[in-house]
Amino acid sequence: MKTFKVLEIKESVFENNNRQADLLREELKKDKIFLLNLMSSPGSGKTTTVLRTIEALKSEMSIGVMEADIDSDVDAHAVAKTGAKVIQLHTGGMCHLDADMTRQGLLGLEAEGLDFVILENVGNLVCPAEFDTGASKNAMILSVPEGDDKPLKYPLMFSIVDVLLINKIDTLEYFDFDLEAVKKRAKHLNPNIKIIPISAKTGEGIEEWANWIRTEVKNWKEQ
Q: N or C: which end of the chain has fewer CB within 10 A?
C-alpha cells in the first residue's frame, strides 16, 4: 500500500504553460500581431532564412525578431543590420522557450504596432516541440545535410508544425537525401503540413515562403 503522494510534475507544467499560451494567442489576435515560432537544429540555416524573410517582406509590413539562445548575441547583431526590430533572449541554459518567456520577449521587444514577429527558438528538435509558445503558427527548418531520417527520429516536431522548410536544396547533389521520402514521412505524421523546399543561400523558394507568410498574416488580422 502506498504511503506517499505521486505528483506528475511534467504534466502540470505543460497544463499551466498551455493555459498561458492560449491567453497570449488571444492577446496577439486582439493586437493584430502575427507571431511565428521558428524551430530547427543548430546549423540548419535558421538565421540566414530569417534574414531572407525580412528582405522579402520588410517593404510590406513592420517586422520584429526575437533571437533565443542559451548565450551569445551574434544572431541579433546580424538581424539588427536589416533594420528590423530585434531583441536577444538568453534562456540561462534552458533548451526551449515557453509561453511566459515569449511574453517577456514581446514586452522587451515592444511589439505593439508590429505586423509580424519571428521567434527564432533555441536550436534543437526536442524541447521546443514540447512547449507551446503562444505563437500564431509554428514552422521548422530541416536542412539537407541533416539527413532525410529526421521525421522518423523526431516525430513530435514534425507533428506540431504548420510549415516545413527544407533548406539548403542547393546541396542536394552532394548528399544522400531523399526529398520525396521526407515529404512522405512528414505528411504521414502531419497530413496538413505545408512543405516548401528552399535555399536561404541562393534565394530559391523564398518567394513561396514569403507568400505563405503574407497569407497567414492577412488571415490573422482578419480574424
A: N
Give the Cα separation of 215 and 7 in Å (integer).
44
Please give the pLDDT value at position 209.
Answer: 98
The DSSP 8-state label assigned to residue 7 in this structure reads: -
Whether the CB-CB separation of 196 and 53 falls below 8 Å is answered with no
Q: What length does the chain have?
A: 223
Structure confidence by residue, pLDDT tens digits, 41-70: 999 999 999 999 999 999 999 999 999 987
What are the backbone dihedrals phi and psi of residue 152, each rounded to the nearest 5 degrees, phi first?
Answer: -75, -35
- Is the four-CA dihedral 161, 162, 166, 167 of positive or negative sign? negative
Residue listed under C-alpha cell 525578431: 65
Whole-angstrom distance, CA of residue 198 vs CA of residue 201: 9
**Contact status, residue 13 vs residue 92, Cβ threshold 8 Å:** no
